[in-house]
Amino acid sequence: MRRASVLMVATAVVLSLTVVGGHAGDFKVPLGLSYVSGVGDITDIYETNLEAEGYSVNSVDDIPVGLFVHPYYEWDCGVGVGFGLGPIMMIIGDAFFIDVPLGVDVRVSLPSRFKVSPYVFTGVRVHLATGDYVEDTVPGIYGGVGVSFMRNRGVGMGIEVGFDTSSIELETQDTVYGSWGSSYTVRRLEEVEPMAVTVSLYATL
């Protein structure tokens, strides 16, 4: 419920800004790849869980690069609002995990007449994650800085660094060894920020 409520409120704010801003602007669609800092933490938890369950872990491979699309509308003054999907992350092998982040944001850049423009953005993101040990997700604030190039051409380019406080709650299983060779499993929840830092390269269509 809290995930849906946060995203609905943020979406309403973005739509309100779009209506107030009128039609003097341009619609852009950045599409690219992001390096994600925290997916290795999820992989470590999966490997620990499998070992605690008695499996011989052959492979739990993470791909720390994900595809994203981030369409946004930008007015001539340089203010824009957007919707983000991704970067999509996966873990494959002896266990399964997939994460599809969704977010809405507001951005500010130089006016559209500039060919090269630095920008900043901030918004709300929630993870639509599923997998063997996923328990819950917690929405958070995300934002970052970037530079877009060739804005006066049909296809532009850009680079971006983002920071994200949204998180995923995972079940963690630890094997505890006692006396005389006995052992037992302790289960707890661990909160991971899979996209605490992202570095992205993209083309703008």
Tell me about this structure.
Strands 1, 2, 3, 4, 5, 6, 7, 8, 9, 11, 12 and 15 form a 12-stranded antiparallel sheet that branches. Strands 10-13-14 form a 3-stranded antiparallel sheet, with helices on one face. It has one domain (2-204): Porin. The two termini are 35 Å apart. By secondary structure, the chain is of the alpha+beta class. It has helices at 2-21, 39-52, and strands spanning 25-28, 30-36, 60-62, 65-69, 72-75, 79-85, 89-93, 97-109, 117-131, 134-138, 140-149, 156-164, 167-177, 183-192, 197-204. It contains 2 helices and 15 strands. The model is unreliable at 16-22 (pLDDT under 50).
Count of β-strands? 15
The low-confidence parts are 16-22
Biggest sheet: strands, sense, closure? 12 strands, antiparallel
- What number of structural domains do the residues give? 1
Structure, briefly:
By secondary structure, this protein is of the alpha+beta class. 17% of the residues lie in helices and 57% in strands.
How would you describe this structure in keywords?
205 residues; alpha+beta; Porin; twelve-stranded antiparallel sheet; three-stranded antiparallel sheet
Task: List the SSEs and their pairings.
Layout: H1 2-21, E1 25-28, E2 30-36, H2 39-52, E3 60-62, E4 65-69, E5 72-75, E6 79-85, E7 89-93, E8 97-109, E9 117-131, E10 134-138, E11 140-149, E12 156-164, E13 167-177, E14 183-192, E15 197-204
Antiparallel strand pairs: 1-5, 2-4, 2-15, 3-7, 5-6, 6-8, 7-8, 8-9, 9-11, 10-13, 11-12, 12-15, 13-14
